[in-house]
Amino acid sequence: MIPVPEGALDLEALIAASLAEDVRDGDRTTLWTVPPGTRARARVQAKASLVLAGSEAVPMTLRALSPGVELRSLVPDGVELEAGDTVAEMEGPARVILTAERTLLNFLGRLSGVATLTRAFVRAVEGTGARIVDTRKTTPGWRALEKAAVRAGGGMNHRFGLWDMVLIKENHIRAAGGVREALEGVWAGNVEALPVEIEVAELRELVEVRPFPVDRILLDNMSTDELSEAVRIVHGWGEKRPLLEASGNMTLERVRRVAETGVDLISVGALTHSAPSADLSLLVEAILP
Question: Measuring CA to CA, which residue among 105, 133, 90 is closest to residue 15?
Answer without folding.
Answer: 105
